[in-house]
Design a protein that fits this description.
Elements: E1 15-20, E2 26-31, E3 57-59, E4 65-69, H1 78-90, E5 97-101, E6 106-109, E7 112-115, H2 127-154, E8 162-164, E9 167-169, E10 175-177, H3 178-186, H4 215-219, E11 235-241, E12 248-253, H5 255-258, E13 263-269, E14 285-290, H6 293-301, E15 304-308, H7 317-327, E16 337-342, H8 345-350, E17 354-362, E18 374-379, E19 384-388, H9 393-404, E20 411-415, H10 429-438, E21 445-448, H11 451-456, E22 464-472, E23 478-487, E24 519-526, H12 541-559, H13 563-571, E25 576-578, E26 586-588, H14 589-603, E27 613-622, E28 625-636, E29 639-650, H15 657-677, E30 682-683, E31 686-687, E32 707-711, H16 729-741, H17 751-757
Parallel strand pairs: 4-5, 11-21, 19-20, 23-24, 29-32
Antiparallel strand pairs: 1-2, 2-3, 3-4, 6-7, 8-9, 9-10, 11-14, 12-15, 13-14, 16-24, 17-22, 18-19, 18-21, 22-23, 25-26, 27-28, 28-29, 30-31
Length: about 750
């Protein structure tokens, strides 16, 4: 998933609008114009919109409330949680609310591109934190309009009225339903100042377990995902892609392909040129267009293509490992890019009683979303329609504009529910492919990727090898800590990260135990690779937490200390430490300790276990949220059994506990799956994995029967929840396996290793 995300420039402003539909319903939304013509409402956000928003909050005359869901729904629950924020401040009965997915809302402004609905992307677990600041005001402002309308109708000061479950109530008990007030409210000017928001003690929707708004449609197969989009005259497209990054097409023989019944055309598409940013189609390819998926796939099978390998045609996983090992040798220390240096690690090491060292390795990973990339697109001379599962609709709009030349204001993007994201859909290479193909035909085109396409042409989680060292004094205190990482940097050929440090989104300077050990050294040694890299659920933390939390356990074993006790000792007294990375501005040691203690208490940490069983614990601070896992496992004949899995999580005030629990369970399962089974390997410059047979996601038989979730009550501003529960699940598993088997596994994935040992 995407890393750091920021709000737009503060110079951009939005304005509240109210009006009526043709049917007389009250609509409340945002628009913007030049400040000299309307009073600015900067409390509503930071972007300009020069036209009426359309449906954002709509109240019908019968009292029904329709709320627009602006975010990309990739399974993280924002189609439910974001409308809950509006509904709470609007003070309506949630049972009378209907949620509609909003399209991407691009508009032109006098100062450049603008957003109709605010931030619509999904990444970095930012949807809830951003919405907390603006969507509640949208609901509060709509409620204010209704109160003012009721005040005029009843001739009672608005301050003497209150609202409840979709009605305005007078002191004598007289009720006016919102539906009765929409005509009058739609004629009022919106408030010019932010409205007072509810006291949390009065919440009736926020904080209450709320089912997914479209759950019935999902389980009955009625939900439309991007891959389901259809038009009557659509042509299905599949692409034969160059297996090497920066490779080329030498020749194409499509004679047999064109003989396949249903095949209509064969087209070439150009990938990104060597050295350029990966902002279009990833590689060169040949597209087959047909009247059916079957015909397109059969046609692709019959293509005869000669490829010219790219400059990375000899890249292999074995070679990558050898080069990482070479980089981490002391002789190359001078080539390291410093990330954070506190004190004097070398001096502390010389004075130490003992220094412990260990090395941890994590592989490239694919996203393997259950719904592979797909897009339906229709390109005409002056407009474009796109229907797709997205995480970054703004980027999709940009890439279509770059390829077709159609103004972004004429590009309509309809967002569907997505079958997973995990950061894969933050890249719009599949949208670029679809646009390149559709530009060459006058019909709508539906591009489909197979699982093979998906695994072999992804933006992979970086490969990392960590060399860890910790020095101990005579009192068994940790006096120095170093972590040198040889990795394929995340910012490889990514123009959006070209001005960021080389280590950005691979290492995090302020992560635990930074700031807690006086002598601290964190550095990166860049490992060259041609493979595209991208955001992967809980960027950086999905790798660093494994190394850090595993090494803490190794130190505890060396000191003959309890692993939980050592973590709590390092955290020390509750306090705020500066945290400049995404999720800051501070790291609260007390909140981190609290989730450790909660997980430990739930699993009854320290109890005597049956033979061959072990307990493991790990935790991490990710994007503003705190999570800790405690696992009870066994490993018989190399088969791992997770008998209990506990995750304690603190993401501040919880909007939807049911959604948070689901995300915590999903993150835990994802973490276990990653630790046990998953790796992308290279040979002769090509990805070796092609389907779930050799990239095996966790099967039901491997999963814990239950994931016990402990939600920490908090009145802090909410963080997101999509990524927080993954990082600590991996080291909690390997730490528990060590406790059960006395085998320390330092390289992921562990499944095959364990079966060979036991």
């Amino acid at each position: 998933m995407k890393g750091d995300r920021t709000l737009a420039s503060p110079s951009r402003r939005r304005f509240l609008v109210a009006g009526a539909t043709v049917s007389g319903a009250l609509i409340v939304g945002w628009r913007a114009a030049q400040a000299q013509t309307q009073q600015a409402l900067p409390y509503l956000g930071a972007r300009i919109e020069p036209q009426l928003l359309g449906v954002f909050v709509r109240i019908e005359k019968n009292g029904d409330v329709i709320i627009g869901a602006r975010g990309c729904e990739i399974g993280q629950g924002v189609k439910t949680s974001l409308p809950m924020l509006i509904a709470e401040e609007l003070d309506v009965d949630w049972n009378r609310v209907r949620v509609e997915q909003l399209p991407y809302g691009y508009i032109d402004t006098d100062k450049g591109p603008g957003d109709k609905y605010g931030e619509q992307g999904a990444g970095g677990s930012t949807s809830i934190p951003i919405a907390w600041k603006d969507l509640r005001q949208a609901g509060a402002a709509a409620r204010w309009l209704l109160l003012v309308a009721a005040s005029a109708k009843l001739n009672i000061p608005a301050g003497q009225l209150h609202t409840e479950s979709g009605s305005v109530i007078a002191p004598d008990g007289t009720k006016l339903g919102y539906g009765e007030l929409v005509d009058a409210a739609s004629k009022l000017d919106p408030p010019t100042e932010p409205r007072t928001l509810k006291d949390p003690a009065a919440y009736k929707i926020i904080g209450k377990p709320t089912p997914t708004v479209d759950a019935r449609e999902i389980v009955t197969g009625q939900t439309e995902f991007g891959i389901d989009a259809y038009r009557a005259d659509v042509l299905i497209a599949v692409v034969a892609r160059c297996p090497w990054i920066d490779g080329e097409i030498v020749s194409v023989d499509d004679a047999e392909t064109r003989k396949v019944a249903g095949v209509k055309d064969v087209l070439r598409i150009a990938g990104t040129k060597p050295g350029e940013s990966f902002d279009g189609a990833l590689v060169d390819g040949v597209a087959v267009l047909a009247t059916s998926t079957w015909a397109a796939l059969k046609g692709r099978e019959k293509l005869k293509i000669e490829w010219k390998p790219g400059p990375f045609a000899d890249e292999s996983s074995d070679g990558l490992r050898k080069r990482a090992d070479e980089l981490l040798r002391p002789a190359n220390a001078g080539n390291a890019v410093p990330v954070r240096r506190d004190g004097d690690v070398d001096k502390a090491r010389k004075a130490a009683r003992k220094t412990i060292e260990a090395r941890y390795t994590v592989p490239f990973l694919a996203h393997a979303t259950m719904e592979p990339p797909a897009a339906l697109i229709h390109v005409t001379k002056d407009k474009v329609l796109l229907i797709a599962s997205l995480q970054e609709p703004e980027g999709a709009s940009e890439v279509i504009n770059a390829i077709t030349g159609v103004p972004r204001s004429k590009i309509e993007i309809r967002m569907t529910r997505a079958g997973g994201g995990f950061g894969r859909r933050l890249k719009n290479d599949y949208i670029a492919e679809a646009a390149l193909i559709a530009k060459q035909t006058d019909k709508p085109v539906k591009l489909l990727w197979t699982r093979d396409d998906d695994l072999r042409h992804d933006f992979y989680r970086p490969y990392c090898m960590f060399q860890m060292a910790a020095s101990l004094d005579r009192k068994n205190e940790v006096t120095a800590w170093s972590m040198h990482c040889a990795a394929t940097p995340r910012n490889h050929r990514d123009k959006r990260m070209k001005d960021r440090p080389l280590w950005a989104s691979t290492l995090v300077p302020d992560d635990f135990p930074a700031g807690l050990i006086a002598n601290f050294d964190l550095s990166l040694l860049a490992l060259d690779s041609g493979q595209p890299r991208g955001w992967w659920r809980a960027p950086a933390h999905n790798a660093t937490a494994f190394a850090v939390q595993s090494f803490i356990d190794e130190i505890a074993v060396a000191l003959k200390q309890d692993p939980l006790a050592l973590r709590l000792k390092l955290l020390g007294e509750p306090r705020q430490l500066p945290y400049k990375g995404h999720g800051g501005p501070s790291f609260d040691t007390g909140r981190m300790a609290a989730v450790f203690n909660a997980a430990a208490a739930k699993i009854n940490w320290g109890r005597k276990l049956d033979r061959d069983r072990g307990l493991g614990i790990a935790g991490n601070f990710t994007f503003g949220g705190y999570a800790a896992h405690a696992l009870e496992v066994s490993a018989i004949d190399g088969n791992v059994v997770v008998h209990r899995a506990v995750c304690a999580i603190d993401v501040g005030r919880v909007v939807n506990p049911l959604g948070l629990e689901a995300q915590t369970i999903g993150g835990t399962i994802d973490g276990l799956s990653t630790a046990l089974n998953l790796a992308i390997t290279l040979k002769d410059g090509k990805v070796q994995q092609s389907n779930f047979g050799d990239y095996p996601l966790l099967r039901m038989g491997q999963a814990p029967v239950d994931v016990e979730v402990v939600i920490i009550d908090s009145d802090k501003e909410p963080a997101g929840a999509g990524e927080m529960a993954l990082p600590s699940a991996l080291p909690a598993l390997t730490n528990a396996l060590y406790a059960a088997t006395q085998i320390r596994l330092r390289e992921l994935p562990i499944g095959d290793q364990l079966r060979k040992i036991l």
